[in-house]
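Notes from hallway chat w/ T.B., transcribed later so I don't forget. T.B. wanted the structure written out for a chain they're using in a teaching module, and asked if we could keep both sequence and structure tokens in one place. Agreed to drop them here.
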Amino acid sequence: MRTPPPAISLFLGALVATMTPAVVAGTVVSSSAATTVQASTAASSVAQLPSARRARGGSLSTSPGTYVGGQAITFTGSLGVSGVRRIGLQLHMNRPGDSWFAVRGFSGKTAANGGFRFDFPAPAMFGIRYRVTAGQIATPPVTFNAKAQDLTMWVAGEDPSRESDPGQPVAGVPFTIAVDTTPSLFRRPETIGLPVFERRGLTLQRRLTGDSWETLGRSSVGADGLGYFPGVTAPAGTAVYRVVQDEISSGANRIGWMQTFPTYVTVLDQAPSQPKTRTSAEPRVLQSTSRTALTGTGFRRASSGASATAASRYGWYPTLWDYTWEAGQSLTSPADAGSDRDGWWQEYADGAGRVSRQNGGLYLDSQRNNGGGQGDFGTTRATLRDSALAYGRWETRIRLKSAESNAADFTVLVELVPDRPEDYACGRRNITLAEVHPSSSTLRFGAKADNRQWSATRTIPSLVNTSPAVAVEVAKGHITWFWDARPIGTVRSRAAVSDVPMTLRFSLVGDQTTEYNQTGLVSDWQRGFALGRGKQVANGPRLTSSALTACEG
């Protein structure tokens, strides 16, 4: 069993469930015996499988019909041919040009009549297909569309179940915080009809710093999907709260823990003299009531085939670590594949943003309202921990969503940063894979090394409508950047390489006073590779060198 890393033990210490590996047990049941199998939720990203034929009479069905990523799903069906056969699972991403891939680690056997029944965690992605295979025989496919677990919170009013009518906390007077684990969120159809996990544990936390939370209490989900934390008190001023719902890892379930967005609560020093209608200028809990029209694309995987990767083009495989986010994992779950699976993702938010995973990807969002509106401020980050390299390759696929264009843009960053705090040097050793803004067509990338920096720009299509693979190769004598498998820049200088362990970081960078455009950064997967495999590339265009005087704030 894997326990949370020490850096986040403060806010997960009270959780009942502990983190577990992505490998789970299921059963394949015949009429005469039950055989235990081991199944991994991760799909192969390399080897494509030959085509398979469907036998007459083959069938496949799944239940329940409504589920979230990682929830145990029962697969029932028949290959359509008799005889005991070893079976496997395959998945298809359902985009033009995609092929069927094996689901790693799964194996089982049919009954003598060709039938099978087993439990397996549901995939988190929308619109993908699974099928059961035996050699060149395959069942008809089943399409999966998981619900995306989410939750909202508010200060309870006269009717504690109504988020639309919150209460007003007063200093020294106990109040109740309510949470809804089955919200139907605006322009988020994948949250409509979420299943209720009755008695699932809930933890109430108060923010201390951007990456540190204090646990205040425990509760659980009721039959209606709601939970309550009575008896909360706070001094006058503004406090920031959130609720975390526990991971579920019983049986074949592998449902990751999930947290609300940070919720700002203004506590008055005394009760108002008389009840009155609240105006927009008066303090209250931030609510998800904005109905600004969505101008960006919806949160779905691209319908076109995925673009090429540098790892495939230059033979970087096998991976050291590979986060696929295919089955509803927690941020603290280990990598799905690779020889180094000890890493985890540390979340940071000093404003209204949140780091989570949705639809099979790591997701940074600037605020609760999917349709935009006021409340986008501060910096939100996700940093990979316990998987740092001084030299190596890093690659990820990214895209943006944006619901607004009438305010300032967040600075969106994909970087390598020193892993150890003592090496950070206030950002003067960072390597930028991509610096972009949602409303701009300019890509910036480069490296910093104490008092020098190397930088370049490139015109790119909007990342709201495209999903490129970005990568960097760091060797002792060069750094090379890649965009959709093509080198776009190289620095051939020993001075550009800091020689300290580096790690991957995603950021939406803002400040505490500016109102920004609502922005989401999606990273479908993140992979790390050693330098010893494949071809090193040092022939990209040159970057501009200049003195470095600025220090990251």
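Follow-up for T.B.: Residues 23-145 form a domain with the Immunoglobulin-like fold (CATH 2.60.40). Might be a good example for the class.
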